[in-house]
Amino acid sequence: MKKTLIIFAHPHFEYSHANVELVKAYDNLENVDFKDLYEEYPDFHIASFRERKRIREYERLVFHFPLIWFTCPPLLKLWIDEVFDIKWMAEQNHPLQNKDAFIIVTLGGKEENYSPDGLYTTTVPELMKFLILSLKVNGIEVKEILAIHNADELTAADLAKYTTEIRKTLRTP
Hints:
- By secondary structure, this protein is of the alpha/beta class.
- Helices cover 32% and strands 18% of the residues.
- It has seven helices and five strands.
- It has helices at 17-22, 37-40, 48-55, 74-83, 124-127, 129-136, 156-170, and strands at residues 4-8, 32-36, 60-66, 100-106, 141-148.
- It has a five-stranded parallel beta sheet with strand order 2-1-3-4-5, with helices on both faces.
- α1 links the parallel β1 and β2 (32-36).
């Protein structure tokens, strides 16, 4: 399994039954490190140099977060802004180049709402464009977006299915 950093950002994690269960997918996996941004940076003061040094060690990044007002949580956006260094793009072999990524996003809304004909007239991949593009310009290929809809209403069986799917995704070469 690729050496993987899970970048988890949920401002109200303790109230998210779905995410409390889903993050268990990362337990006891070799080469997988879990980072909860809201736990590590509750004051929003990101140690960008430490983070830049840390991400060099990983082959894969996983961004796991809830959709909040059609985007990522503010601390995740700040983390990207502070950690991804625009100067890297000019370097031949910069720290993010040749990595891959997965995006795992939980949504309270129904799947049919996230379609061109749905309530929001847009899709989850379209909403993730900011992140996909930020990764792409840094040489990171997004392998998959896993959108978990109706997160507040998922049963234990649903959550177990998604946990299994996440674990399987992490084993992708």
